[in-house]
Amino acid sequence: EFALYMLEACHDALLRAVGGKVDARTAETSAIHQIFGGYLRSQVRWEKSHELQKLKAKNGPMKTSSSISIGNTSNTFDPFLILSVEIKGESIEKCLAHFTKSETLDRNNMYKTPSGVYVPATKRFTLHRLPRVL
């Protein structure tokens, strides 16, 4: 835990050395981020038919289905220096498998699509780019 705090302090000190406020993209170019940083992808998938059905219920009958953009996958990429995983498995591989396991979003935890309707979906984290040092 001490090493993690030390790593964050080094990262912050490097960013302060350039002076002024640093945007997120610039922060990702620091030496600390280049060595220890990675990217986490959060992917949400849903059925187009569920979204279309909810849109029809919300807005009434649509003239054509091509009048609105309907998707079924959303990807978000977030940089990380520290990857916190639960230590439940017998190995790091099992811990990472648990971390990247798909989660169902339904009932009171539905996904809000870009078109503004809530639909059942699945969400999954994956390691998009691994750090050079784990």
Care to give the gist of this entry?
With 134 residues, the protein is α+β, with helices and mostly antiparallel strands.
Summarize the structure in words.
There is one protein chain. The protein has a four-stranded antiparallel β-sheet. Strands 4-5 form a two-stranded antiparallel ribbon. Helices cover 34% and strands 25% of the residues. The model has no long low-confidence stretch (mean pLDDT 84). The chain has two domains: 1-36, no CATH class; 38-134, ubp-family deubiquitinating enzyme superfamily (ubp-family deubiquitinating enzyme fold, Single Sheet), CATH 2.20.210.10. It is of the alpha+beta class and 134 residues long. The chain has five helices and six strands; from the N terminus they run αααβαβαββββ. The protein is flat, with a radius of gyration of 20 Å. The two termini are 14 Å apart. This is USP domain-containing protein. Residues 1-134 form the USP domain. It comes from Eutreptiella gymnastica. GO terms for molecular function: cysteine-type deubiquitinase activity.
Layout of strands and helices, then pairs:
Blueprint: H1 2-17, H2 24-27, H3 31-36, E1 38-46, H4 48-59, E2 73-80, H5 92-99, E3 103-105, E4 111-112, E5 118-119, E6 121-129
Antiparallel strand pairs: 1-2, 1-6, 3-6, 4-5
CATH topology of the largest domain: ubp-family deubiquitinating enzyme fold
Give helix and strand order, one letter per element, not per position: HHHEHEHEEEE
| Global mean pLDDT | 84
**What percentage of the residues does DSSP assign to strands (E)?**
15-25%
CATH architecture of the largest domain: Single Sheet
Query: Number of DSSP helices?
Result: 5
Task: Give the overall shape, derived from the CA principal axes.
Answer: flat
Largest sheet: spatial strand order: 2-1-6-3
CATH class (first level) name of the largest domain:
Mainly Beta
Number of β-strand runs: 6
Structural class, please?
Answer: alpha+beta
Q: Termini, distance in Å?
A: 14 Å
Protein name: USP domain-containing protein
GO molecular function: cysteine-type deubiquitinase activity
GO biological process, one term: protein deubiquitination
GO cellular component, one term: nucleus
